[in-house]
Amino acid sequence: MAEKFDSLEEHLEKFVENIRQLGIIVSDFQPSSQAGLNQKLNFMVTGLQDIDKCRQQLHDISVPLEVFEYIDQGRNPQLYTKECLERALAKNEQVKGKIDTMKKFKSLLIQELTKVFPEDMAKYKAIRGEDPPT
Amino acid sequence: MGGDRAGQAGMMENFSALFGGAEPQPPAAAAALGFGPGKPAGPGSAPPPTAAAPQSGEDHSRKTAASSGPFYLMRELPGNTELTGSTNLITHYNLEHAYNKFCGKKVKEKLSNFLPDLPGMIDLPGSHDNSSLRSLIEKPPICSSSFTPLTGTMLTGFRLHAGPLPEQCRLMHIQPPKKKNKHKHKQSRTQDPVPPETPSDSDHKKKKKKKEEDPERKRKKKEKKKKKPRPSFVWSSPLPIPGLYPRMHGKLPLLRLLLQAIQLSTGFKKKKKRHLVSECSWYHGNPRKSPTCICGTAFLAGIRDLARTRLTQAS
């Protein structure tokens, strides 16, 4: 799994470096550097080909669209992961609280119903079997 | 009245027929998908004595409903093995390490902190220079599916004019400022002009506070400077005179005693701050022994000023 990402990362790094060098050549262009520029342009095309080849290996990877929003805003995409984890934990705690409350409610309801309808509740308990009030 | 009762009995029969054994079977497709009537069979209903067909989920639920006796809406309780929100899902999926990594310490806000080696100003929003990934997804560029190398004739289109690019086009060379705690002021002075960043609210507040504090601090400093009498260092020449200071060095304890006597008589207090040996014009021998100077040049200068004023008063 990591190998796929490593190769993509390597290709991306090479591509970025090539673009950086291309930028340097272009920023102060000299007629003698035309050959170098042509070479860099062709490297750019081969770099794009290499990146495109990596697509086949990563077809099963899905990226949430929200991450792109973070990147577009110039924010660290790790913040998205952080927020996701925090949200998951908060929701987990919330649901746990609800489940615990419902359990308490159930036990109290059974307790009160046995006072009012002892026979029916005995039947109910017989059907449910081992269902002790929590 | 009798007719009414008969009508009511008929109604009840229809009602019991709805929930009783006469209930029509749901379509096979719906049952296979897990869809069916929400309510299980009523109290009067009984399962067919012999089930020739293989038991589906629907039949099973009906059977349990039938065994539930007088109770409606009896359903099987979820098993304990089922994963619910009552368990800590982060520990369940072994995400503790990730949680501690991202939520334990502060994650830096900017994209340049995540990709420090990427050239150019990447912290700017993508909408600024129309380079957002969102626009790439929404409006993909119209091009062929494969990449073909540029031929010689194609490359003739990339002939450029000689000379440097204008300043506004040199975005590639501008790097985001890297913060260092030690040399904050120095960096801010020496930094190249950088296009304005998108500061967060907290950054903006901090800047405002600094602006508010700065004039007050300056005033206080000025007041302090005014209050402090500056001793003149005319007496202690900055230029070392060879041959003179070694002689003085031997008499330094004697001189110090004399000065102490003057201090006691005049009430002049010695300044606490001492200067470094390297800054002093007195000869101290080995400066490694004590980095701070013991000659008390400032003290001497103060005494001299005091003596002068006394002399002028006496004259």
TrEMBL record, chain A:
<keyword id="KW-0805">Transcription regulation</keyword>
<dbReference type="InterPro" id="IPR019145">
    <property type="entry name" value="Mediator_Med10"/>
</dbReference>
<dbReference type="Pfam" id="PF09748">
    <property type="entry name" value="Med10"/>
</dbReference>
<keyword id="KW-0804">Transcription</keyword>
<keyword id="KW-0010">Activator</keyword>
<dbReference type="GO" id="GO:0016592">
    <property type="term" value="C:mediator complex"/>
</dbReference>
<comment type="similarity">
    <text>Belongs to the Mediator complex subunit 10 family.</text>
</comment>
<comment type="function">
    <text>Component of the Mediator complex, a coactivator involved in the regulated transcription of nearly all RNA polymerase II-dependent genes. Mediator functions as a bridge to convey information from gene-specific regulatory proteins to the basal RNA polymerase II transcription machinery. Mediator is recruited to promoters by direct interactions with regulatory proteins and serves as a scaffold for the assembly of a functional preinitiation complex with RNA polymerase II and the general transcription factors.</text>
</comment>
<keyword id="KW-0539">Nucleus</keyword>
<protein>
    <recommendedName>
        <fullName>Mediator of RNA polymerase II transcription subunit 10</fullName>
    </recommendedName>
</protein>
<dbReference type="GO" id="GO:0006357">
    <property type="term" value="P:regulation of transcription by RNA polymerase II"/>
</dbReference>
<dbReference type="GO" id="GO:0003712">
    <property type="term" value="F:transcription coregulator activity"/>
</dbReference>
<comment type="subunit">
    <text>Component of the Mediator complex.</text>
</comment>
UniProtKB/TrEMBL annotation, chain B:
<keyword id="KW-0010">Activator</keyword>
<dbReference type="GO" id="GO:0003712">
    <property type="term" value="F:transcription coregulator activity"/>
</dbReference>
<feature type="compositionally biased region" description="Basic residues">
    <location>
        <begin position="177"/>
        <end position="188"/>
    </location>
</feature>
<dbReference type="Pfam" id="PF10278">
    <property type="entry name" value="Med19"/>
</dbReference>
<keyword id="KW-0539">Nucleus</keyword>
<keyword id="KW-0805">Transcription regulation</keyword>
<dbReference type="GO" id="GO:0016592">
    <property type="term" value="C:mediator complex"/>
</dbReference>
<dbReference type="InterPro" id="IPR019403">
    <property type="entry name" value="Mediator_Med19_met"/>
</dbReference>
<feature type="region of interest" description="Disordered">
    <location>
        <begin position="17"/>
        <end position="66"/>
    </location>
</feature>
<feature type="compositionally biased region" description="Low complexity">
    <location>
        <begin position="20"/>
        <end position="34"/>
    </location>
</feature>
<protein>
    <recommendedName>
        <fullName>Mediator of RNA polymerase II transcription subunit 19</fullName>
    </recommendedName>
</protein>
<feature type="compositionally biased region" description="Basic residues">
    <location>
        <begin position="218"/>
        <end position="230"/>
    </location>
</feature>
<comment type="similarity">
    <text>Belongs to the Mediator complex subunit 19 family.</text>
</comment>
<feature type="region of interest" description="Disordered">
    <location>
        <begin position="177"/>
        <end position="236"/>
    </location>
</feature>
<keyword id="KW-0804">Transcription</keyword>
<comment type="subunit">
    <text>Component of the Mediator complex.</text>
</comment>
<dbReference type="GO" id="GO:0045944">
    <property type="term" value="P:positive regulation of transcription by RNA polymerase II"/>
</dbReference>
<comment type="function">
    <text>Component of the Mediator complex, a coactivator involved in the regulated transcription of nearly all RNA polymerase II-dependent genes. Mediator functions as a bridge to convey information from gene-specific regulatory proteins to the basal RNA polymerase II transcription machinery. Mediator is recruited to promoters by direct interactions with regulatory proteins and serves as a scaffold for the assembly of a functional preinitiation complex with RNA polymerase II and the general transcription factors.</text>
</comment>
